[in-house]
Structure formats: C-alpha cells, structure tokens
Amino acid sequence: MGAVLTGLFLLTEMLPSDLADVQAGADVERAEQLRHIYGLDQPIGVRLWDWWSAVFSGDLGHSLIDGSPVWPRVADRLINTAAIAMPAILIAAVATVALALVLSWNRGRPVATRTSVGLAACAGLPEAVLTVALVALLSVRLGWVPSVSLLAPGQQPWDRVEILLLPVLSLAIPAIAWSTRMLKGSSDDIVSLDVVVSARLRGMPAHRVILRHVLPRMRGPLAQVFAVMAAGILGGSVIVESLLAYPGIGQLLSGAVAARDTPMVQGAGLVLVVVSMSLYTAADLIVDKGRMT
C-alpha cells in the first residue's frame, strides 16, 4: 500500500501545472511568489517526506484554496459517497449473482444468449453516456427525479432520497454488467460439477440446488468479484458525482484536480486507495479461509 500511496503523491505532482500557475495566469513572477508561499518550490523528495510524516500522524494537511483541514472535508464527502455507493453495491451484488446463475443455468439457450448480448452492451457503455441517458429518461421524460443531485448546506443525503436514484443507478448498472461477465466463468464451472448435475437430474428444485450446492462453492469467486466491483463503483463515483453535481468524495476529487489543490487531491485519493485496498485484502482473506476449510 505504501508504494501505491507514494505513486499517488507522485502522480499529483506530475500534473501539468500547479495552483500558482492557475492563480497567477501569465504572470510568471507572481507564480513564483505563490509557489514559495505554498511551499511548492521545495524539492519533491522533501514534500513527499513531509506528506508521509503528516499522514502517519493523522494529518492530511490543509487545502491550498481556503486553508481548511483536508480530513474533515474528505470525511464528510465520504459519507455522502457511501450513501450512493452502498445501495449501488447491494443492488449490483444481488443482480450479479442472479444474472450469472441465469446464464450458467441456461447455457446454450436463447435466454442466455440474449442476456449476454445485453450485458456486453451495458459493459461497453461509458458511464458518462449512461448517466446522461438516465437523466434524459428518468428526469426529463418521466419527471420522476431531479436532473441533478444537489444537497443544501447542512442537508444529509437521506433527507432527500429522491436525489439518490440517478447516481445509484448510474453506478450500479455498469457494475452489474462487467461483474456478471467476471463471475460467469466460475459460475459455469460450479454448475457443471457432478454434484450439481446429479441434483438437477434427480429433479431437485432449482432453488434448493443453488442454495445447497452452488452458492456455498461460489464464496471465493464472489468475494473477489465483489471487491473489484465495490472498488470500481468508488472509482466511478468521480464521473457520476461530477455530472450530477452530487457532493461526494468523487466530486471533491474532481474539483480539487481542476483547481490543482494538491493536498485535497492527495487526501481524497489516499482515502479511496485505503478503502479499495481494504476491500481487496478482505476478499483475499475470505478466499484463503475457503481454501483452508
């Protein structure tokens, strides 16, 4: 994880300009003055050391824009993102398992072929295009939800549940498509096992076969796919939140990159990396535990 976080810091330092350039414009002398004020003229090794030292002490620094502490703002935005990411993960997880089993159970039949084609189309659809299409359908045409997911100052996401539908669907639909395609191989192998085939031939009801013989054997693949899916949904929040003006950590990260507010970029990026790596580690532990039993 240390290498990943160091890479994150170095990537932010490689942006084509910094805050001094953004604020000073063409005034080179003013840019140098601002760079000195913000400490951006120090060697990159010194800044990396200072950043790691601050991280280990629990301090993510202060915004270069307004001087506010990074961590409280990131934490508030992370809660907002969790309000859309967790429902999206839950919906995607249930749909992924159901669709993967439908494809494996009906392998070679027209329903499996049509489902595979639909999933391939959804998986190849950019999140920005899907989000715009959902806005056009659910907001403009049907008028069910607002076209943007704005929150008033001090308002919590659960105070306005209607604004969560668009971002949740925008995150869940692509995740369902590519997660199902990832899980299908393992699902095919399990459904083809002798114990499953024998149970089906004996006339055991499908739901009993799935609950008794299929799902217990899918624990490892499910953990891995769900970890990747959850991390992908967190990454996709950057695009979806920016398009829908939803005040989550993705929008915070996008705005900080545009403003070249490097402490905010690094703080938000660090939190996303830590959450993603934690998901992958938990999935590996589940897989290892399954191999030992």
UniProtKB/TrEMBL annotation:
One of its GO terms (cellular component) is plasma membrane. Belongs to the binding-protein-dependent transport system permease family. The chain crosses the membrane at residues 78-105, 117-140, 160-178, 222-244, 264-287. It comes from the Bacteria. Signal peptide: none annotated. GO terms for biological process: transmembrane transport. This is ABC transporter permease. SUPFAM superfamilies: MetI-like (SSF161098). Pfam families: BPD_transp_1 (PF00528). It is a multi-pass membrane protein. Residues 78-283 form the ABC transmembrane type-1 domain. PANTHER family: DIPEPTIDE TRANSPORT SYSTEM PERMEASE PROTEIN DPPB-RELATED. It is found in: Cell membrane. Keywords: Cell membrane, Membrane, Transmembrane, Transmembrane helix, Transport.
